[in-house]
Design a protein that fits this description.
The complex is a heterodimer of chains A (305) and B (280). With 305 residues, chain A is mostly helical. Chain A has 2 domains: 54 residues; 240 residues, Orthogonal Bundle (MetI-like fold). Chain A contains 16 helices and 2 strands. In chain A, strand 1 and strand 2 form a beta hairpin. Chain B is mainly alpha-helical and 280 residues long. Chain B folds into 2 domains: 55 residues, no CATH class; 169 residues, Orthogonal Bundle (MetI-like fold). Chain B is built from 11 helices and no strands. The chains are: A mainly alpha (305), B mainly alpha (280). Chains A and B meet through helix 3, helix 5, helix 6, helix 7 and helix 8 of A and helix 1, helix 3, helix 4, helix 5 and helix 6 of B. Chain B: One of its GO terms (cellular component) is plasma membrane. Chain B: Keywords: Cell membrane, Membrane, Transmembrane, Transmembrane helix, Transport. Chain B: One of its GO terms (biological process) is transmembrane transport. Chain B: InterPro entries: Bact_Polyamine_Transport, MetI-like, MetI-like_sf. Chain B: Its main location: membrane.
Chain lengths: 305, 280
Amino acid sequence: MTALSTETPSRPAAAASPAALRARKDRNRALALLSPGLIWMALFMVLPMCMVVYVSFWTQTTFSVEPSLTTASWQRFLGSSTYLAAIGTTLRIWAIVLVATVAIGYPVALFIGLFVRNKTVQTALLVACVIPFWTSFLIRVIAWRPMLGTEGAINMILMKLGIISHPLEFLLFSEFSVLVGMTQIYCVFMVGPITFMLGRIEPSVIEAARDLGASFGTIFRRIILPLSLPGVMVGAIFVSVMVLGEFATAASLSGRKVNLLGNIIVSQVGSLKWAFAAVAGVVLTVIITAVIALALRLVDLRKEM
Amino acid sequence: MQSRALRPVLATYTALFLLFLYGPMIVLAILSFQGPEGGPQFPIQEWSVYWYKHLLGFAGTSRVSQLPVGDSLLRSIALAFMTTVVSTVLGVMSAEAFRTRFKGSGPAFYLIILGMMVPGVLVGLGMALLSNTLGLSRAWWSTSFVLHVVYTYPFAFLVMLAIFNRFDRSVEEASLSLGVSPAQTFRRVTFPIIFPGVLSAMLFSFTLSYDEFARTLFTAGRALTLPLAIYGTFSVEIHPNIFAFGVLTTLFSFTLLVVYGLLMKRFTARAARFHGQEES
């Protein structure tokens, strides 16, 4: 037995074809090149996430946490209507923003990806969509305040036009302003992938359909929409993970009226309630994992990229 | 036929969409020229560059305290630079690894991509908990830095993956079979081909890190980065100096974009000249 086991590893190596040898060398090289990145991710992403789960079971004292395991924080979270409401708010805002970005973004993508056939104009329009990203995220959020406020641009214009006599109060520091802000900021993540998918549709396919007498409605339903759906899914994944983990937009535009799970984490950390923040973190992780898992069932991310 | 009628409708719609994207920034830029007595809203009391002077510390005594941007700006640039270098190197290495098929490439791919998916507030919380437990102090150049790389490395990786996918392997093989060493081949053959991708990966990493906020919030410790300094002003009343700051940072980003564009153009021009020589 022992003789056999010492002999086997050396023999295939000696007998291996040069192709097999090369394949093994390539594989080892690939693993060597990949390992620093994977180790980085394991240490600084996976380990902290495990830590969040672990700490959610620690005991919370007034200003610190102790590593004796308890489910007290979980009981407090799940027993509190405020925190359960935060889950509801997070899901509601996510669903509305997702629908809004698709509804607002799809026609734009349709125009850029399908109706503009001049490559230069197409690129210029896409760049125009991306340029706002070159402004700080927080500045883009705060820019909605002078736009929506009672003395803001929209109220001013509407009053000048005589449409309203008193400024609209619901525009700022409400759920509405959070929804508008998020839709504006994340819409481009929907426009981009859909445009990309639409741009890949062979013009001859649409021409053939038209020659065969199909109306635009039919062409859209039978050709354009199915071929663009992977783009919608990729966009939905982007928008979902960003909106679900949001807190800054709600913090600066809702006037503390909208509490997302992210806001709860931030405020709990602010008052050093680490265990409690960790519970909110785990809940958020579960929600996001469920959403991504669902989306990945519908689209293969690796194939689309 | 309907599609002919649809075209102007969609064009108008797209124009409105762009107005939606740019509107707030335009309003913000207009209000940044508010007079010294004016607030962060309409009407404009008088047109002035007072708040720009205020931001840069030339305004003298004022009812509004100055934004703490000086040191935090330097920290943010240093952090973005460190992040750019590390994530680009990691991105190039990983994308190069993905050119060969190996077992477990699927999970490895998703592990890397997860870095851009995980919400910043979650990894930030995890990192803060981890450093608390290990007794490490948190700082922008340590705990924040590693998280920034976790975030930007997947972007660099995806950019490089796209470049390598379009890259003809036989060019490298020709070089190797002519007896050029692997290191020399990488420097003289591979790198020039992937350079535009590297530049894009660097641009991505730099801007994402420079603007990153959620990952820094719990991990930066006492010394603030630029986004944290801006966030700190949100809780109190805002003044037009934030708007002036917004305009200036946007200009800074555009400068960066122009530099990138020029580098890219210069490089592609040189590559085109090279092709011309080969053909003649």
